[in-house]
Amino acid sequence: MEIVRIASLEDPRLADYVGLTDVQLRMRTEPERGLYIAESQTVLSRALRAGHAPRSVLVSERWLPDVAAIAGDLDVPVFVGDEAQLQGITGFHLHRGALAAMQRPVLPEPRALLADARTVVVLDGLVDHTNVGAAFRSVAGLGADAVLVTSTCADPLYRRSVRVSMGTVLQVPWTRIPAWREAGAMLREAGFQTAALALADDAIDLADWRRERADRVAIVLGNEGHGLGPDALAAADVVVRIPMHHGVDSLNVAATSAVALWAVLHA
């Protein structure tokens, strides 16, 4: 690796790291520029194991030996600075030691991803990157096969999503899917029963559905505020709910993903 001591915060080679706290800017520019940010040595290590290619690394002086142990053989620049310099570039205190600008991988074709899967999760319209990352962690930890993401869902490779997922978003197979009219037909053709988690009058209890579910299932989770839209509900084969108590109507979407997957895969 090429060690580059930061001499100026205006160095154009640092452009990938500038203003990382500007969510709207990063949501637009990172996909356009074909990159995502891996935060922490743990996430960087998982990204490298997944075969993702770094463009560069940004690290504080005291964490350089740890980064060298992970990425020392890579032919990429490693920008090194003190904590004040790094905060001036990124907009936040880099207390996890390192950031890496990574090339975005090419997403698989949805039908290819479904071919060998039996349990998938569909994230439709989630806007909170924390929830997206937590859902991916549930998928990885509980053993689902893949995640499908609609066009209205927050970016799984946004920095906060990757960090909250503990890097599992880099390990779990996932891809974007088309609008529900096409996506619903695609799931049916692949032999999946589509189960929408929603508060509907005709929803059945999770435990009852689990006992009678199909062998291949797609669990659909919706927006944190208004849930699933009419197109998603129309595409579903069944609407499922988790029974609640004490006047609570539902769980956070990330918690819902964990409960539903536990019921399907382990109960």
What's the short version?
It contains 11 helices and 12 strands. With 267 residues, it is an alpha/beta fold.
Q: What can you see in these coordinates?
A:
With about 270 residues, the protein is α/β, with parallel strands linked by helices. The protein has two domains: about 100 residues, 2-Layer Sandwich (60s Ribosomal Protein L30, Chain: A); about 160 residues, SPOUT methyltransferase, trefoil knot domain (Alpha/beta knot, 3-Layer(aba) Sandwich), CATH 3.40.1280. About 35% of the residues lie in helices and about 20% in strands. A seven-stranded parallel β-sheet has the order 8-7-6-11-9-12-10. It has a five-stranded mixed β-sheet with strand order 1-4-3-5-2. Helix 2 packs parallel to helix 3 and helix 6 packs parallel to helix 11. The protein starts with a strand and ends with a helix. The mean pLDDT is about 90.
Q: Top keywords for this entry?
A:
2 domains, 36% helix, 21% strand, single chain, 7-stranded parallel beta sheet, Alpha/beta knot, 267 residues
Give the secondary structure arrangement, pairings included.
Layout: E1 2-5, H1 23-32, E2 35-39, H2 41-49, E3 54-60, H3 64-71, E4 77-81, H4 83-90, E5 98-103, H5 110-114, E6 119-123, H6 129-142, E7 146-149, H7 159-164, E8 174-176, H8 180-189, E9 193-197, E10 204-205, H9 206-212, E11 217-221, H10 230-235, E12 238-241, H11 253-265
Parallel strand pairs: 1-4, 3-4, 6-7, 6-11, 7-8, 9-11, 9-12, 10-12
Antiparallel strand pairs: 2-5, 3-5
Helix pairs in contact: 2-3, 6-11
